[in-house]
What we know:
Blueprint lengths: L3 E7 L6 E7 L6 E4 L5 E3 L10 E2 L6 E2 L9 H11 L14 H17 L4 H17 L3 H21 L9 H14 L3 H13 L6 H24 L6
Antiparallel strand pairs: 1-2, 3-4, 5-6
InterPro entries: DUF2225
Amino acid sequence: MNLLYDKKVSCPNCKIDFTTKKPFSTRLKVDKIESDNHKIYKNINPYIYEINVCPQCGMAFGEKANTKLNEDKIRKILDYFMNINDFNKYTSERSMEDGIRVFKLALHIASQISEPKYVIAGLALKVAWLYRELEEAAMERKFLEISYQNYKFTYSNEDFESVGYQKYFIIYTIADLSRRLDYFEDARRWYGDLFALRSAVPRQMMIKATDMWGDYKEEHNKRELQNQPIGA
C-alpha cells in the first residue's frame, strides 16, 4: 500500500511552487500516545514529513508558515542559505535522520526571523520526539530543554490564546516537560497551576496529569529517602 502522495505547496520565501511527499492521513495508525502528546505510529511516521523544504532556496516551513516575511527576514534567510544547496532530496521519501535535519532547519529559520516562542517550542519538542524514537536520550533532553524554556517564555510574555492555544494546554505541556527533565520544584508549581484550573481542563487530560504527577512525586520521594544518610 502506498502511504505517501505528492502535495503541491508554495514557498513563502522565493514564491515558487513545488511538490513534496506527504503521508495519507487516512492510512496513519497510532500505536500509542505519550504524556507530552507524542504519537507513536505503526506504519509511517508523519512527523518526518511535517516540514516542507523548498528545493530552490531551502526555506523550511510547516503548514502554518508565516507568509508575511518582510525584507529583513528574507535577507536573514538568504544569508543563511548562501553556502548551502541540495535541498531537492527533502521533497522525496525521508528517513528519520532527514526528518530531524529539516526540523532543525525550520527551528533555525524560526529563530532567525524571530517567530513567536511557541513556534520555536513546538518545533524543538518534535525534534525531541524523533530523538526519543531513535533512543538518543542526551539529544532528546537537549531539545526538551529548548522547548521547556520557550514554552515558559510564551506563558509569561506572549498572547498565545489569540492564535488558538488554551491556557491549560500550555500549563500542561510545561508541567510535563518539567517532569521529564526532572525539575521537581518546577513540576510541583506547574501541576499545581494546572489543578487550580480543574474546571476548565478536559477530563482525560486532568486524569492523565493527576496520574503522572502522582507517580512522579512518589518516585521522587523514594529517591530522596534513598539519598538520606544512615540514621536520618
